[in-house]
Design a protein that fits this description.
17 helices, four-stranded antiparallel beta sheet
Length: 468
């Protein structure tokens, strides 16, 4: 008896790597040929749409070629042979036309953008559209574009480019983002995922035309015109107790499906909402070396990148109902509520009628509301700051001080560090580790925001220092 020979060879296990993949560049002739093919296919698809779809276009083309799709089989046996030959030629022509239609569909539509991401480009709506969709979009001041073709034209892109920028793959040979890590103030590292220049420009376009137009609650202070960390802190000046809460994994929690839902609720059609959601999100990825190829492997769902210009505005609009519910809760408990990105701040002022503060109820109710809105409370970051201790809100101190001191101001230790660094540079001493001219200028600008007089003095002193 002969042993069975197993011709299966186990693949080498994948290896994590940090080496960027190499890209294969097409020749000019190949690029020109692809562009010619794309242009012809897109024009063909416009013709297909004008005929009401693929079936109507195929029928029109068959008639144009001299075929008769509606011809009935003749009763005469002598004519049957000729009829069969014509029908055979017609079937071959129909097959060829459908192949051309499929090619046109690939170039002229974007109905499929990855596993489970698809829609019918010719359907013109679905069961999840609002009944007053067009009116809602107009109410929000959103553009009237309804199809992928219209969106691509508005962005000055070809459909192929738009598909390339939005197509999702769990395992990809490239990426439209570059990532790096920065240290957190509280320890650990934060991953910044920033889009490449072309994608960033389109995200800014989406921000201006869509996301900045969506309604936002007055309690939101982050990344909005005339709002800042200063306005957020000023809302809590004079408080007896300040409660600071934090939302865990704020941006990663907002997946592309939530962004799509936000847009559809605002009156955007299925194709445009899907494309914009994919354009503004990305999956966390790990570089893996496999069979001499570097791959970008998704390690989680597509979500808002911390580094995209659209992410803050999306979260502000998405948190509208959250802010409404937390504002109602704060009114019921007799406190003030604001939100700056993922930082939630509540402040209480004691009154004769309200000497006991419902701090426990506040935290528990906020936790429940966050959960029902799809977020999680970061319990370890909960802080309760009373009047006798330093009360800092979004980095600014709000404890009562003298008449010449701003009500919300930069902490004294920051001012001391800046003053000492300026003094050392004036004495000719080198910058300490982590210090630079730009760093000192940023600290002076930070002080200027809340205390213009003192900040202007520091800015002038920093400007007079040698930059190297």
């Amino acid at each position: 008896m002969t042993n069975r020979i197993d011709d299966h060879v186990s693949a080498a296990p994948p290896m994590l790597t940090t080496r960027a993949p190499t890209r294969v560049k097409l020749t000019e002739a190949e690029v020109a040929e692809r562009e010619k093919q794309r242009t012809a296919a897109e024009a063909r698809w416009l013709e297909i749409e004008s005929k009401g779809g693929v079936d109507g276009w195929v029928r029109a083309k068959l008639i144009e070629a001299g075929h008769n799709p509606d011809a009935a089989a003749p009763a005469n046996d002598d004519e049957k042979k000729t009829f069969k030959e014509k029908k055979t030629a017609e079937r071959a022509e129909r097959k060829k036309l459908r192949a051309l239609a499929n090619e046109a569909r690939r170039f002229g539509t974007i109905g499929f953008l990855g596993n489970t991401i698809h829609w019918d480009e010719l359907k013109g709506g679905d069961d999840f559209d609002r009944k007053d969709r067009a009116q809602k979009a107009e109410q929000n001041g959103l553009p009237p574009w309804e199809t992928a073709n219209e969106l691509a034209a508005a962005m000055d892109l070809s459909l192929s480019e738009l598909r390339w920028l939005t197509f999702h793959r769990e395992v990809d040979s490239g990426t439209h983002y570059h990532s790096w890590k920065v240290p957190k103030r509280t320890g650990g590292e934060r991953t910044i995922t920033a889009p490449m220049p072309k994608l960033k420009a389109l995200q800014r376009w989406a921000l201006e035309n869509y996301f900045e137009k969506l309604p936002v609650h007055s309690a939101a202070h982050g990344f909005l015109p005339a709002r800042s960390v200063l306005t957020n802190a000023l809302a809590h000046v004079g408080a007896d107790v300040v409660v600071k809460l934090d939302i865990k994994d704020f941006f990663p929690t907002v997946t592309w499906k939530r962004v799509k839902g936000l847009l559809r609720k605002s009156g955007v059609t299925e194709p445009v909402a899907t494309l914009l959601a994919l354009l503004t999100t990305e999956a966390p990825r790990q570089l893996v070396e496999f069979r001499e190829q570097t791959l970008h492997v998704a390690t989680g769902p597509r979500a808002l990148p911390q580094g995209a210009p659209t992410s803050p505005a999306i979260t502000n609009a998405l948190c509208l109902r959250l802010d409404q519910r937390l504002s109602a809760l704060s009114r019921a408990l007799g406190c003030t509520y604001t939100r700056y990105a993922d930082d939630l701040t509540f402040s209480f002022k004691k009154t004769p009628e309200r000497k006991r503060l419902a701090l426990g109820i506040l935290v528990e109710k906020t936790k429940d509301i966050l959960k029902s809105e799809g977020f999680t409370l970061h319990a370890k970051k909960t802080q309760v700051l009373r009047r006798g201790a330093a009360q800092r809100v979004t980095g600014l101190t709000i404890n009562a001080a003298g008449p010449q001191v701003p009500t919300a101001r930069v902490a004294r230790d920051v001012v001391r560090r800046l003053r000492a660094a300026i003094h050392n540079r004036k004495k000719g001493k080198p910058y300490r580790e982590g210090e630079s001219h730009d760093h000192l200028q940023g600290m002076a600008a930070w002080i200027y925001m809340s205390d213009p007089k003192r900040g202007a003095e520091f800015l002038a002193q920093v400007a007079a220092l040698p930059k190297s």
